[in-house]
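Q: Structure for this?
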Amino acid sequence: DGGITQSPKYLFRKEGQNVTLSCEQNLNHDAMYWYRQDPGQGLRLIYYSQIVNDFQKGDIAEGYSVSREKKESFPLTVTSAQKNPTAFYLCASKPGTAYTIYFGEGSWLTVV
Amino acid sequence: QKEVEQNSGPLSVPEGAIASLNCTYSDRVSQSFFWYRQYSGKSPELIMSIYSNGDKEDGRFTAQLNKASQYVSLLIRDSQPSDSATYLCAVGRGFGNEKLTFGTGTRLTIIP
């Protein structure tokens, strides 16, 4: 089936650890995005990438890193520098000629 | 002033009635507008997109856009309990700018 796959769905992180969230899409979409959602809040853009080997910071990039080595993959690393990482993380993608973005099922990250 | 503003609700509507959700935005050059529905604990799913002034209808949903007044609305006719969710308004600049800015969402409850 075509779609956007995020893993893991639930992840627990200890203080000081880096964790990586996976996002894979088989839709042949050019652009990919990472958003963060806190309870009762809207979505805030962390990073986005329009083409392979290129990405831009969003509104809240501090404490996060990404890579785009393949068109179908856009992993997000939450580093120990991110002071409040507990949130719902959403990966999204978009065809090159369209405005509409589509979301994966999300990953819940909790710091313990 | 927030870039995209929505009334957080909760908005309670009787089953079968019309639910009206509103959104205002601050960037006058915005060109693309979206409504996403998000059930609790799930990722957002696209309901409507609109790019031109006026109304756009899709089944029980109607999106309305007024660029001069900088607002976009979503009407849900014949509201069903399954429509109970948080509705997110998203705005994009278009013209190759790939980022969407989201409002914080309006929580809608349909009362049987």
